[in-house]
## 1
Amino acid sequence: MPFPLDDMRWSLACGPGPDGHWHGWITVRIRATALVPLGLHPDQPWSQPNSPSPPRWWHAAAERAVRPSRPDPAQ
């Protein structure tokens, strides 16, 4: 891992979702000062987008491309 354990915190939460199925959530937190050497700290200018976001149709097409083409029989 590129981070010392003192700079990381993680947690797991589980519970039923609105559809009644159980879901799990993992949260990972990294201390901001640990991100500086990687160029990922939000105060660094190159950590922000430097060009406009793609159009909405591009995002919708990308989401359709990753969805399964047939329904899942387990649901």
## 2
Amino acid sequence: MTQIKEIQHLLQSQNLWETHFSIRPNPNQRGQSTSYFIYDETGTPIYIAKFFDFFKNISIPPSIDVHS
């Protein structure tokens, strides 16, 4: 399931989704989160949904063998 579908499903399950709402990615993505705006029918952003990926853009070195 895509993040946008997950957001829509969550809002529907909480009775917060209206059929005229739309979801668009925030064009200014930074750091370890991906955010989306939920817009009403007038184009006004009314919610922000964020997904955090704490390992995004982090390289983890291979494990060091302590016995060598």
